[in-house]
Predict the structure.
Amino acid sequence: MTEHENGAPAQSTDLAHASSSGALTTRGALPERFENPGLPPHVYRAADVEPQAAKHAERQVATLFALSMVATLVFLVTYFAIPEESTFFFPGVGTINTLHVALGLSMGFSLFLIGIGAVHWAKTLMPDHEIVEERHLQRSTDEQRASAVNVVVEGGRSAQLDRRPLLKYTLGGALGLFALPFAFQLVGSLGPVTVGELKETIWDPEENDGKPIRLMRDPEMTPIKLSDVTQGSVFHVMPETLQKYLDEGRHVLEAKAKAAVILIRIDPDLIKVKKAKDWSVDGVVAYSKICTHVGCAVGLYEQTTHHLLCPCHQSTFDLTHDCAVIFGPAKRPLPQLKITVDDAGYLVAPEGFHEPVGPSFWERAR
Amino acid sequence: MSTINEERPADALRAHDAAARRDHEETRPLGGIAGWVDDRTGGTKGVSTLMKKVFPDHWSFMLGEIAMYSMIICLLTGVFLTFWFIPSMTQSPYDGSYVPLQGVMVSDAYRSTLDISFDIRGGLLIRQIHHWAALIFVVAVFCHMARVFFTGAFRKPREINWVFGTILSLLACIEGFAGYSLPDDLLSGTGIRAMNGFVQSIPVIGSYMAYFIFGGAFPGELIIPRLYSLHILLVPAALVGLFTAHILLVFLQKHTQYPGPGRTNNNVVGYPFMPVYIAKAGGFFFIVFGVIALISAVVSINPIWGYGPYDPSPITAGSQPDWYMGFADGALRLLPGFLEFVAFGFTFSMNIFPGSILLLPIMWTIIGIYPFVEKWVTGDDREHHLLDRPRNAPARTGIGVAGIVLYSVLFFAAGNDLMAIKLHLSINDITNTLRVLFFIGPPIAYWITKRICLSMQQYDRDKVLHGRETGTIWRHANGEFEEIHAPLTPRERWHLVQQEVQEPFVVTETTDAHGVANPVARKDQWRAKLSHFYFKDRVDPVTPAELEAAHHAHGPALATEPTETEAAETEASEPAIERH
């Protein structure tokens, strides 16, 4: 108890088992626990004692192997015999590619039958006497442990590690630092760090020499007249400025990934938010199609409820309330694109988006 | 020097040849190639030990085998696919043999996947086998993991292997995600789009990380080549390396076995590797391969030609990832949007970050450290080679089922749209229900599972004490009916009485002799509390004394216990073949 007086007891407090149920009143010579009765007597299989059964098993296994060979041959014949475009109709499933199914079935059976044959062989003819192997404690003996420690310590000592600390510390420093060039090369060269782009889209009038940008059908890239947009219709829209990217064939998808817009006409009286109404034309509204959650395309429009639904995680946006989130994991409304009609009667976006589109990121609100 | 032939000195150099040849003749049993190799490596010593290695038999041990084989199948078919797949995002119009897509702008990755599917004979079969094997690989890994967990096979000395297995299962999911993203089709592209959003949600470094990973703005032209090098080089190398260590440890530590007559903590009862397990395990490889090929022949998976090439603008309804990523997708669907907030001008996307980025490491860390937690609670430092029957570890089984329920809630949440469509329910109701279930499901599952385990143990006790029902009804002289119970043979009984039951710790000393609170005791009190949680409710196995007492209660007529020989006879009488 002297350690306790020091206030720092060296050992853990006693952990004892709660008094066991107390039912263990050993009566007479009965042991406290049942004893392991040992392995059950071996039961011989039919094939072990009857030559007839063994012969039968042998024939079964051989048949399975032979059938596998037949399946392999079928595969080879099929591979050369069936043309790629050949199909057949299977009731309830539809049209099926004959070559694929024939190759798959023959290959499947050629493998499967080998497996079944081998297992059947093992189960009927191979020895099934259970063998008992002893286990030993996993740990090495104390001597082995001591000698291992000794080898390491002696090795260090013979390398004069303890006598020459300068070597120890310089080696440690070198080993500690050598990975840095690799880390810098990787991190520094993985990608351009132009994250400011996240806030830009090609709807910015600067992309079009300051002129308003026409709304174009995606993927036809034809302009849209106000009169084309009938009540309840939905247009998938790209900006006129995308044409430049399409012509050059570069960065098309990067531009589309932020520029996708959905254009819908609803009853103007249904639009409850003044800004949304001001930015629309006769009930035609344009919103970013990129979900503010993780960036999927918000492609599902429910005409009766005027809800836009993202098929990835079911964020639901209310078109009548400036695309505010009414359900699901997204937080922010879809950004609206202000539209008007140009002199030729086509829908145009004069200002671009007023906020970054797509999923949130750290610097978004800066 | 007398042995040197004076006339032809050079012969002396070959003086040993004859002896060596003679030696070789004597070791005839190991001639040919085996002898040649052994001369140079001495490998024979290990081979005989290896060939005699005993493995215990149980169907549940095959779950890990299925995982191993489907991984090998993935490696084999994957090599085939690399011969034709082009990991490039360069766009050009499609001109292959699939008519509906002719003229559409597609990436090389998508085009080459279409070519594998339509223009290369048997290519579609290899692709389908690869995808099915990958799906089955992850299923098998999780089933194997559940088997190991519920039977307590992770206990000392196998904690390291549990950790290896945990990492393997995470790698399997990552490998799968990287793989199904490669064809650059609309569905997987949408998945990569979502991944881009996940990465962006990381506080502070998110936008930079996204630009690093994609090599610039999304989607760029680098993500497919980068995923490709992960998918065919880095992750498979890690998988194969860890898997080798995993299987080597199984060899080294010898396989665990279920308790049973003759099986103890100090032995392994089973069959030798040569020939039984070579045939059984080797045959099983062919069975797994064959079944996967048959599935691939008749059930189409990931028909990318139907989805079209990736384009950020269109989308398909019902966008779901492969099943093993479902739980993370579900977590994203359940997290409510209000968790996102802006503070000091910075955006904290707590509606995305926890479900997409944090969930995986947290979940796998909890799984990985479980053996160490349980060991701390039980204070058990012994080696365990006998498996627990899940009912005999009610708290552990309850925790496991609670974990499965938690996982399932997230998994089903990923299908909330499909459930809403197929079952004609409101998606909002389904999502809200799952949100509630996420919190109350696991505790309920724990409680129910634990109760079921305890009653099954109680049932085992009854069976030992009163024997098994024979279906024979006796009518006594006084008109009373009684069903006859046959006592169990010692071997039947052993299954039900072999387990050890741990009792909760109590802290006996919280203050020292002077009444000063012991700082160590506080830690122990925690431990005692957890120990209480684990072992407070328990059912002790029947002791010989209790059985004796039960026999007295029944009266002698029904209590005659079969002797060892009688028991052996009844057991052996069923196949009716005896040979000595």
